[in-house]
């Protein structure tokens, strides 16, 4: 007979690599863990473990059973979460974004959780490609990415935009491309694309980011302004990164005539409607950003998707 507890015990055993640790985690006896595994092997008609004294390795059937069990429980969790779709103030929020977005969005969501104890938050910081893969795999209900994606199993739509900022050391006295080339560029994942778009819109003689000396790189965008504050170069980041940076007083933003924005997109599995609590959280965050930037009137971002 199918028994989900046997699969849960087997998943835990594989993850811990130990019957003793599995028993402790699941608050069972060690013989009870062994019995669950034996019952699962009897149900499937295949040995799942190659036992070698106190150690074991998975058989091919064991590896396939583990992969199936992970998928089984992921689908169960998706179903369970779907039952809470109509609730505005309760249920789990499973979402992911790049660090540049989460620097401000994650604290906002935590604040909402404090006001609505029925909410729980599972928030992951990741790069665009990882977020897309995890949404497809059911690890997240919703992803926020900085580049639109096309995939037959995903829906992707623009959600919010943040201005890009040209950030230089606080004592920088220049204002032209030659001056920027003189100090060089500090890059991060997606940084050259952002910089190229902003410089192209504001400097007619701009040709390519390849003309700028590259003074460094970090895959953590929240740290890039540390390098700028030390006078090692300039960078281009979204306003959220600048506003949340501990080094914002050691750098400055150069004023430019033509604004360029980073467009953020929501990505979810095709045909699925995210629970209403997500809609309220995302709209609440956008409203907060409008108030912070433009006050409580009708700000210029009312045209956003």
Automatic annotation (TrEMBL):
PROSITE patterns: HTH_LYSR (PS50931). One of its GO terms (molecular function) is transcription cis-regulatory region binding. Belongs to the LysR transcriptional regulatory family. Keywords: DNA-binding, Transcription, Transcription regulation. Residues 2-59 form the HTH lysR-type domain. SUPFAM superfamilies: Periplasmic binding protein-like II, Winged helix' DNA-binding domain. This is LysR family transcriptional regulator.
